[in-house]
Amino acid sequence: MSYVIGIYRRLISVQIRSQMQYRFPFLVDLVATGFITISGFVTLAFVMQRFGSIAGWKLGEVAFLYGMVETSFGLMDMIFSGFDPGNFGRQTRLGRFDQLLLRPVDITLQVLGSEFVIRRLGRIAQGVVILILALTMIHIHWTFVKVLYLPVVLSSLIAFFGGLNIIGATISFWTLESIEIVNIFTYGGTEMMSYPMQIYPHWLRDFFSYVLPAIFLNYYPSLYFLGKPDPLHFPTIAPFLAPVAGFGVLGIALAFWKFGIRHYQSTGT
Question: What's the Cα-to-Cα distance from 2 to each of 9, 105, 175, rounded to whole Å?
Fold first, then answer.
């Protein structure tokens, strides 16, 4: 395990040093990435100021949903950048994935360490700011269990979105093109999970409950943290299924990834 961690640290350190060679463009990207996140939330705040609430959720409560998703997605986008379907598909077309297969290091570790986009710190920071702001606007009765469960939920969200990236990267073995449908579930999923799930139509809630279990990753844990009643009447265990849903999707994604590796055929480039 120490050997694997050491290899990963070296790969990441190379990525960070290379990105810090041009500090001004890095700072511009950092600020721009964070600005996009905060501008989206400011727009939401103006809308909620006009209407007061969304399905009974006040601004602070929606901000809690928003901050949780943005923080975790930003962390995922930084950690799992190597599996980004668009970038990974392009690298595969150029034959660079074949080069990784020739190295005596675990292929999953190599891809994971091939990209580490630190400008995502802008999105992460803005997500954390929104989450802190939400906590100042609402009252949460913190217990020992809630304090321990909060990082578990954030980790589960990271695992969930990371798993979707891995699935998209694996599909590119056969398509060799950017998988836009994956972006619907990653970038589109962040938008959907930033709002109360009861505002969506029944069929969409069913899909994100029983096919892609996003509902258990942010909405139900937030009901638990905020002490809000469940309007959808799921079992009482629902708020605690975040690690099952998040790491379950990641596990399925890694199994699919290994299947793709076994059946991969070189592009010949």
Answer: 10, 14, 36
The whole-model pTM stands at 0.88
| Other C-beta atoms lying within 10 Å of the C-beta of residue 69 | 27
Buried b (16+ CB within 10 A) or exposed e, 86-124: bbbbebbeeeebeebeeeeeeeebbbbbbbbbbbbbbbb
Q: Which two tokens stand for residue 209?
A: 């409950």
Q: How far apart are CA 95 and CA 55, in angstroms?
A: 50
Residue type, 211: V
Q: How far apart are the first and last CA of the chain?
A: 34
Is the Cα dihedral 187, 191, 193, 197 positive or negative?
negative
Domain boundaries defined on the chain: 2-262
pLDDT per residue as tens digits for the range 8-52? 777 777 776 766 666 666 676 666 666 666 676 777 777 777 777
Look up residue 56 and give its DSSP letter: T
Instruction: Summarize pLDDT for 60-87 with one digit per residue, the tens.
Output: 899 999 999 999 999 998 899 889 887 8
